[in-house]
Fold this protein.
Amino acid sequence: MSQLLTYLKSGQSESRWLAPLLLLSAGMLFPVALAPLFWWPIGLLSIAVFVHAIWHSSSVKQAFWRTWWFNFGKFSSGVSWIYVSMHDHGGTPALLAVLLIGLFAAFLGTFPAFWFALRQRFFSSTLAWLTIPVFWFLHEWFRSWFMTGFPWLFAGDAHLSSWISGWAPVIGSYGLSLILLLSVTACYQAWQTRKPAYLLILLLWPAGLMLQQQQWTEKTGELKVAAVQGNIPQDKKWLPEMVNPTINAYYGETRDHWQADLVLWPETAVTLLLSQFQPYLDAFSREAAKNHTTLITGVPYRYPIGHPLAGEFHNSVIAAGNGEGIYHKQQLVPFGEFVPLEKQIRGLIPFFDLEMSSFLHGEQQQQPLKVTKTSNSGDEELFLVAPYICYEIAYPQLVSRLANNADMLITVSNDAWFGDSLGPKQHMALAQMRALETQRYLLRSTNTGITALVNEKGEILDKLPLEVRDTLTGTAEMRQGQTPYMRFGLWPLFIFSLLVLLIARFQAARQGQPVPAASS
């Protein structure tokens, strides 16, 4: 171990593979801090190894590759669940699926590697205890939108239940990541300089505990809700002969819960286009309206003949019965819902030809869905729900923006693509974090699980077991008001980052510190 740390510090060793091996291993441990285990102390240890390596990088090239090895390990283990969709459902040979996941992890690793190479180029060791956390935040933010974004495996997402979770409604999961990195780097700086004053940063943890008691939103009503989990096997879901059994399964579960104000079906619950499903929907809508119930379901939408986009598809949700509105998904899953470079790679392997993988992106400015609650005396209350389809719930800023005028969040998904792997558990935890950031209740309906009701603290109130057909019922609070994160977004983090970078550059210039050469 001493040889490894010596190499990480000096860059000199007879065994050049030791440092990459240590960083790869530390990166592979990183996802253990996230769902479903939430062993976040191991995540701090993983980050500490990375911080030590970057702190003592002596060149831009070395910073790039050290960062890349760490993140290659992180993404290799953290997104390994993609194998299930590629191999089990996509028909990709096992070895090729493993290779493609490795290439995907290698590609994702270049993003943070670029940012930390940039840090080394302009700041080197100057104020490393501040610039390392800032560049961690910047690389997570960059990864959330570049090339449609992949906001997965953020460090802050491990802290749904730790003391610092109280900061989530204030600065979001991005801010939690910044606090984590600051905690590690401040401890490292205190150890190196023998100045315990740096440990004052750790007061952010008890401050977060106190913030957990703060109510940023207030209850304005409640709805009786029901979320149906149809448990239709993925390998049979899109077969033509499964259309009627699927509709009957969802209707069979729903007719026992018409007393609910809102019934939610999952993403593409019905494997018909909306135009084809409309006769069924009209019948269900009449029954729902008779019982003062709003039915919301996921359904593919195709533009009709005569429309400028005739023949094009959206992945959508629609409200019927005692509610109204339609929402088209904005953030699509690459290869699952649209294929980059479609003309060039269609047909190469079965995974590039999955069913319904040619959707259009929905527009940014879309209205919430309307849910009308009718009391026994006939009085009506209108509530607005912000819908998110599958992958969209992973995007903190998208969720925050749509939640501004909403009383509640709903999300629908079909995680059957990933079986009983890490994927659905990580996905569920991201939904919990979005509920915490916005302090809104969240209702989640999926085909095979995890179907759940989450409160404004990000806590799961109830959920259904995986791979069962059942309906979850409960009472969801309607809440209004804005959390600081909804109000100010990432601006506090950007301002903090800008100040740190300006101070670091000023200090480097004052000390006459040479800028490290990119090729050194």
User: Anything to note?
Assistant: The chain has 17 helices and twelve strands.
